[in-house]
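[09:14] KT: can someone run the structure on this one? pasting the chain below
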Amino acid sequence: MGPILHRALCGLLLAMLGIRAPDFFWFDVRPLAWLARGAGLAAAARATLTARDARSPAALAAVFLGLKARDEARSLPKAMACADARGEPRPCVALVTGANSGIGFATSRTLFEQGYTVVLGCRRGRACRDAAAAIGLLETRGGNVVVPRGGLDLGALPEVRRWVSEYAADDALPPIDVLINNAGLTLEGKQVIPADTFFGAGRGGDGTPGVETGIAVMHIGHHALTRWLIEDRVLDAAQARLVMVSSDAMYFGRFHASLVEAEDGMGDFAGEETIGCRSFAGAVPPFCIPPVLESDGESRNWGSYSRAKLANVLEAKSWFSKTGMHAASVMPGMVYTKMAAKSAPALSGISEQVQDFFMWVLLRSPRASAAVVLRALDDSAGSGRFLNGQGQIMPDSALPPEASDPVVAESLWAVSERMLGKVKYL
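[09:31] RB: done, structure tokens below
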């Protein structure tokens, strides 16, 4: 093997290890484990890049595949136990948003296999029914079923209000014990949902501004869903468990100062895109860029995604602090989903089959991510905590400053509540 090919292969394998480091060991909360694994990887990298032995790439590949196999074999947490009014055991009921694909589908399927009745919350009814049909082919346990419920458009608050009202009015539908707010998206450039769409017909004409799409769908839509499920007594805050599916992208999310400083209005949600992060111990310095407020853009908008995922972390903390509800946020890991595939422009010129194989090798499967997501249902995580890609509870000191700032959390809550008051629902 020539030196150029040798270094190229070693570089590729080291890059793959670096990309998956957050899932494998990088954010491991155990200091000795982090130091040992980090030192081991550094030593392996140095030895590999300075050696000419053709066995070096094979050794690195074996390390990567071993870590991936261990990651894919994660055990599931024990299923919750629920009882009816007479104290008799019954299937717990879980509602999952974005349940027709990716992490949402894998989580729904896993919950069903554990004996939960699963309510699939989807925007498109047909996709919801197809997902339900796929899950429904599995063997049931104890009478649990799959309930597809299309029409849950988190980008239109009147539709969210209608979805909740119709669910509450249907006596055949059970109360919800577990709410997993999972639905997410990444955007091309700056996108804003018009006020008439997000708040209801006529709101645009009264001067109400539109809302940036990422924060609208991934945060405000989920906030509205949770609030209205509680108000309509579909979800009992004293008994239910809430999981906000966040991302390690939240480490690089920021809110504009107007979120805290503005006494009224919509904070920084009226179309702005805040990107960047402050320097802190939990971030990898090369990726930490100064905060910038952008008004437009043509590339994939990671600023929007990061900010919404930071909002998810604060949302879990706020629901716990204000209601006492079991609430947690979780990073599902670097998962191969359709959203991830669309976010990999370097692979755009590769055939779909080759791309699927490479992404399958590199990233975590949705099935393995579901095992991490469900760790957020553990009793120890319910006090608004954030779980990393290994399902470990992270201390607040390892989170971005805004993620543990009570002033930011209260401002975000206040702005979100004001937005619900703007909804025009017929």
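[09:33] KT: thanks! Residues 100 and 131 are 5 Å apart (CA to CA).
[09:34] RB: yep, looked fine to me
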